Amino acid sequence: MSCLFCKIISKEIPSKPVYEDDNILAFEDLNPQAPVHILIIPKKHISTSLDIKDEDNELIGQMFQAANKIAQDKGVAENGFRTVMNCNLDAGQTVFHIHLHLLAGRTMHWPPG
Ligand code: 5GP
Ligand code: ZN
User: Rounded to two decimals, what is the model's pTM?
Assistant: First the structure.
């Protein structure tokens, strides 16, 4: 398995986890773009959001529930946070195992770059 995030799940590559359950792992982004920058990933390998199947619908909901919990635990929920999932190259996807970016701790701009 050559997937970077599968290797993080198997602990072959170390990370700084902030949340884990049977289906989800969340860890600090290596190159944070905001004071809080967490990646929330399913333990199931799904390459891009285009590959999400009906059977994954509950899992995707669990990713957002994890983001909500982490935002609340880190005290950024009230001020606000951004969740982003990039799909394919134009959007800037560089790791092809879906991940929800949770960004918070500063004012975000719109439109994104
Ligand atoms: P993408 O560009 O695919 O939406 O997001 C990939 C993210 O993974 C980037 O924000 C990047 O900083 C992060 N990243 C890449 N390699 C590693 C790694 O080995 N460890 C961690 N914790 N984050 C990584
Ligand atoms: Zn993977």
Answer: 0.98
Atom of ligand 1 nearest to the CA of 13: 19
The closest of 99, 77, 85 to 26, measured between CA atoms, is 99
Instruction: Give the mean pLDDT per block of 10 residues along the chain (113 residues).
Output: 95 98 98 98 98 98 98 98 98 98 97 89
Using H for helix, E for strand and C for coil, what is the string for 93-113? CCCCCCCEEEEECCCCCCCCC
Which residues, chain by chain, have CB under 5 Å from ion ligand 2? 3, 5-6, 45, 97
Conformational region of residue 36, where left means phi above 0, alpha means psi within -120 to 50, and beta covers everything else: beta
